[in-house]
Amino acid sequence: MGFFYMLLMGVIASVIASFKNRNVVIWFAIGFIINIFGILILLFLPTVRQPRQYGGPFTEPKHSDNQNHHRIWVVCPHCGTNVLVTSSGIWQCPNCQQDFRYDEEDNASHYYDDSSSLPYGVELIVKLFAKMAKADGVVSKREIHKVDEIIKTSLRPSETDLRLIRKTFNLAKKSPETYVTIIRQLYQELYQDINTLAYIVEALLQIARVDGSIHPKQEEILSFAIKQFGLGQGQNQYTAEKEQSLDDCYRILGCSQSDSLQTVKKRYRQLIKENHPDQYMSQQVPKEVIEKANQKIKEIKEAYEKIVASRS
């Protein structure tokens, strides 16, 4: 009688385990050995969530026929648990409940976070900066530092956005997407904002020359951007003709109204040094670049003079 009772407890435990997505064999053994106590323990344990693939826009199946997918164990990048998946896409780990992306092509799992994303225009700008930095073959520390400085000065991103920007930059360095495609997409996105387009060209110029000389490929990117954005000869006088507000002046210098006049003056001198056209005279650069440098110097001086006048 005792044996049949133990067998019954084992069967009950295994049935409950199946509903809780737990190992049926192990819990049959536990129920068989410790009887009702095993069942009580099992009842208090939470149900294990099975790995699942999201549908809708998050799903990235490599094949359209799910029945053809094979099963494969991958490691959750968050907690290291082995998770059974069947195709590329977004999956949830049953252990830590975190989402991760599995790519069938490289047979690897990656971190996934859809809680935030960069605005489309910012994403394109960062990609273009990456293409400019990589155009000479190697992305130097100076180029990375310059991009970081430009981003922090112009966008003032949060820590979360900054991480996304750096991730986008690193991915864009290796992506097959061409600078031509990115520049055209940028123009479609920002064609009504001539100031931003001009600033992008100026930023590209700073990145190109930070290593001391401008590579022919970088010169090619600059020329195409100037032409595509409509900033060639006779078309770049918009800044001089546009009345600058005091907020515009601080933005041009990369300062804020809370900064001291000494800080503003220091930033002004730095920008004059970085953008002075004389440094391009010995280099083979498009004439549009020199014209843009002259216009930038004029813009910087006017902005500085207005700030000084407003504080006197």
UniProtKB/TrEMBL annotation:
InterPro entries: DjlA_N, DnaJ_domain, J_dom_sf, TerB-like. One of its GO terms (biological process) is DNA replication. Residues 248-312 form the J domain. The keyword Transmembrane helix applies. The chain crosses the membrane at residues 27-45. It holds the Pfam family TerB. Keywords: DNA replication, Membrane, Stress response, Transmembrane, Transmembrane helix. SUPFAM superfamilies: Chaperone J-domain, TerB-like. This is DnaJ domain-containing protein.
